[in-house]
Automatic annotation (TrEMBL), chain A:
Compartments where found: Membrane
Subunit structure: The complex is composed of two ATP-binding proteins (CysA), two transmembrane proteins (CysT and CysW) and a solute-binding protein (CysP).
Membrane topology, from the record: Multi-pass membrane protein
Protein name: Sulfate ABC transporter permease subunit CysW
TrEMBL record, chain B:
Transmembrane domains' residue ranges: 12-37, 57-86, 98-120, 132-156, 188-209, 242-266
Purpose of the protein: Part of the ABC transporter complex (TC 3.A.1.6.1) involved in sulfate/thiosulfate import.
Gene name, Swiss-Prot/TrEMBL: cysT
Protein name, entry field: Sulfate transport system permease protein CysT
Species annotation: Mesobacillus maritimus
Domain of life per record: Bacteria
Amino acid sequence: MSAKKYEERNEKSREGRRSHLLRKWMLIGVALTFLGLFIFLPLIVVFSEATSKGFELYLLALTEPDALSAIKLTLITAAIAVPLNTVFGVLAAWAIAKFEFKGKNILITLIDIPFAVSPVIAGLVFVLLFGSQGLLGPFLEANNIKVIFGIPGIVLATVFITFPFVVRELIPIMQEQGTDEEEAALTLGANGWQMFFRVTLPNIKWGLLYGMILCNARAMGEFGAVSVVSGHIRGLTNTLPLHVEILYNEYNFTAAFAVASLLALLALVTLVIKSFVEWRSEKLRSE
Amino acid sequence: MRNTSKRHLLPGFGISMGFTMVYLSLIVLIPISVLFLKASTLSLSDFWQTVSDERVIASFKVTFSSSLIAALVNTVFGTLIAWVLVRYHFWGKRVVDALVDLPFALPTAVAGIALTAIYAPNGWIGQFFEPLGIKIAFSQLGITIALIFIGLPFVVRSVQPVLQDFDAQYEEAASTLGANSFQIFMKIILPAITPALLTGFALAFARALGEYGSVVFISGNMPMKTEIVPLLIITKLEQFDYAGAAAIATVMLLISFLLLFLINFWQWKQAKKHRAVKGV
């Protein structure tokens, strides 16, 4: 039931109106207080603490070499993890949504594993696999390849953590669209690629964008998993969230919050794009 | 059934399925199985000794009780927030609605230091509780607050669509028959949203169990008191006790899998019921 209809119905009688209004503003008050304390206030704190010692210090914290290298590493990580998981997401969603096969529910559950696993455990499994005492440790050491405490480990852990984002967005959309349009294209003589780029992709583009944005936000912001595999070498294997932690633990609060504000800004941009995509697909559906 | 007869028409099943299985195995399945492999190098008694260690048990208690309380608080307030967002108009509602997802988008480390700045003894809110002898940050209360932050959107986003689709006729019928608002909520709305509530609760709880980034800053990390399980795993790793870390992680992982299985089973059952009702 829409908010409008609900409010209209409750406002029919004067008595009903008064108790309805009272209840309405009480509930809104409680909801906003709760959200304010737990969600909005942390956001305000980040920006306020970041700029508390003036704008110059704020900019300095963001432009010192260690911060810049952390920004660079974070961008590199996302630039690898997001495309990889996007390609996987499209292919897996295609197989799962458009075809019937045995064990589909099991496959979907397996794909969800990274959502259920603690980030720390995600980091741990790669240490057990590639660390110096790990399964492949001796082999990697002999060939002078560094995965753990290096960039490959950070990328791997991030790929693992952000693994389900795109595919989970795409499966319901592709399922809802069925196979009729693709079959029509094929019947009319399109080949597989033409079908995909002219029929499937336009149909899923908003959902795909949505999944990629969430994937990107998590890739740039992941802390636990990356923290386990990174080794925290300043200027070398520090991503932005790890840089925040180091600054914070050195009691350099202003700088920590300055770097954190970059990540908070990223979160806000993510939410804006997310709302826009939701608004677009809602409009498409009602048309 | 229609899809089955037509499925050979569409191309790409072999290659997409093949890629999915290879990628899934390389990124997820093989690494996870290495964890079980490592844990299995311990003898059963060693495994038990590691897992039943006093400090480990204490961290399990802290993690589980905080996660449970946070998920319960989120279930109550998440439902209330979903209700307000679906049923009422007010200024700025769109922005509030969008910001509910902030915990999904904000990196956990950022949330962690921000919450600490608020609830520390000299923090924005913490300073008012300090004279009363109430310590929020660096206690289990702080851990719970961080987990409330992390889990809230799960409940709101589970309940919101169900409330949106809820048919008003039932409420109107009940109201005509003389039911008051409380009765309508308890007898009509609550049963309808219970499956969504359970899903939201389970998702928030599962997420809270494994949460690390937002908790480590606010918890104070005192062994036996405010040490969470993920932190203990890291501590073991730093002491190069890989098998010990793997043993604790295995227990956590099995619990997570159980929850994941329950959630997916629950959602699958709901979808089936939904389809049956709609006659699809």
